[in-house]
Amino acid sequence: MYIPRHFQPRSQQETLDVLRNSGASDLISYSDNEFQLSTLPFVVDEEGDVLRLLGHLARANPHWRCLDGSDAFVLVHGPSAYVSPSVYPSKVEHQKVVPTWNYVKVALRGTVQIHEEPSWIETVVTRLTEKFEVISKNPWNVSDAPRDFIDSQLRAVVGVEFLVRETDAKFKLSQNRDLRDAKAVRDDMARRAEIEMYEAMGYLKDL
């Protein structure tokens, strides 16, 4: 991934926060002369310097059958938003401005292990549920559904463990603009209710 110096993350913690707070990611692999892509919601496992993403795929999805033991990519999407040059104060001075796009992306390279043990899959499904149900007024729990129904649903998926080997992260958040322009972009994100992008540009509070 092309990452100019000013778009590099300020710390490893910043990248980890994107992973911890992420929703669904793109799992991408290459085999038999073709690329395959699946959506993978995940939770993060951290043990010292070892980083793993845990999730699941539908058993009916043929993608998983070529994944076990293979290398793959996971692309994690952070906030993204269009930036209009009309908000730049510098536009009034010289007109030398163009539109762009601000975004946060994390690209991970690693190795996949497939799990078919029901207990492993249920643990991951439970963790995923707990992670994402926090937004619900009345959070749903795996135990809310009948046991035989849950068992049938677990048989319909396979577990995915992605062992991260390399991490690239890009935080393109107007750091290449002068401070006035960057702050104007952040103000415009607030006006447009692009809350995630507004918060991602919080580095401007320290400048």
UniProtKB/TrEMBL annotation:
<dbReference type="InterPro" id="IPR007396">
    <property type="entry name" value="TR_PAI2-type"/>
</dbReference>
<dbReference type="InterPro" id="IPR012349">
    <property type="entry name" value="Split_barrel_FMN-bd"/>
</dbReference>
<dbReference type="Pfam" id="PF04299">
    <property type="entry name" value="FMN_bind_2"/>
</dbReference>
<protein>
    <submittedName>
        <fullName>Negative transcriptional regulator, PaiB family</fullName>
    </submittedName>
</protein>
